[in-house]
Amino acid sequence: MASSTTGKVQVGDKAPDFTLPTQDGRMVSLKDYWGQQAIVLYFYPKDDTPGCTAEACAFRDSYEVFKDAGAEVLGVSSDSVAAHQKFATKHRLPFLLLSDKDGSVRKAYGAVSVLGLLPGRVTYVIDKEGIVRHVFSSQFAAEQHIGEALSTLKAEK
């Protein structure tokens, strides 16, 4: 069940800015990256579940490739800062996990629930100017999000 676009935010839109806490409690805003580097913003259902762990570890294993392509990876779920910290430490994740406790950022992007049950798994590739260049949604092809994001970044260069 994959589609290239879903939800409210579409390719060509300005990415909605937000400020959320990271796994170490620091506050991070999307606009902090604008003018500096591209962002791969991925929404996932829950820390330490099989699909989410596979996805996070695939992003981890390709992290240097993302950095070389001029992009930072940010993961977002409604898990707590403490849960993110445990998940990031356990799997040696080199990128930030952001805690969207109330789901407001997920809602703003339109990364909505699948069948009203699981929070959606959606990846947005956002260029240096804050413009969305690619949207990929697939609940079950977690690791495919990495390839989709890298292909977009390489095409943008």
UniProtKB/TrEMBL annotation:
Name the active site residues: 52 (cysteine sulfenic acid (-soh) intermediate)
Q: Which Gene3D superfamilies match?
A: Glutaredoxin (3.40.30.10)
Q: Which reaction does it catalyse?
A: a hydroperoxide + [thioredoxin]-dithiol = an alcohol + [thioredoxin]-disulfide + H2O
CDD domains registered for this protein in UniProt = PRX_BCP
Keywords, A to Z, come to: Antioxidant, Disulfide bond, Oxidoreductase, Peroxidase, Redox-active center, Thylakoid, Transit peptide
Locations listed in the record: Thylakoid
Cell inner membrane recorded as keyword: no
Q: Name one GO cellular component term.
A: cytoplasm
GO molecular function annotation: thioredoxin peroxidase activity
Which SUPFAM superfamilies does UniProt cross-reference here? Thioredoxin-like (SSF52833)
Biological processes annotated in GO: cell redox homeostasis; cellular response to oxidative stress
Record-linked InterPro entries: AhpC/TSA, Peroxiredoxin_AhpC-typ, Peroxiredoxin_BCP/PrxQ, Thioredoxin-like_sf, Thioredoxin_domain
Q: Which domain of life is it from?
A: Bacteria
Into which EC class is this enzyme placed? oxidoreductase
Q: Please report the stretch or stretches of sequence annotated as the Thioredoxin domain.
A: 9-157
Tell me which Pfam families the record gives.
AhpC-TSA
Biological function: Thiol-specific peroxidase that catalyzes the reduction of hydrogen peroxide and organic hydroperoxides to water and alcohols, respectively. Plays a role in cell protection against oxidative stress by detoxifying peroxides and as sensor of hydrogen peroxide-mediated signaling events.
Known partners and oligomeric status: Monomer.
Q: Which family does it belong to?
A: Belongs to the peroxiredoxin family. BCP/PrxQ subfamily.
Full protein name = thioredoxin-dependent peroxiredoxin
According to its UniProt entry, this protein's organism is Dictyobacter alpinus
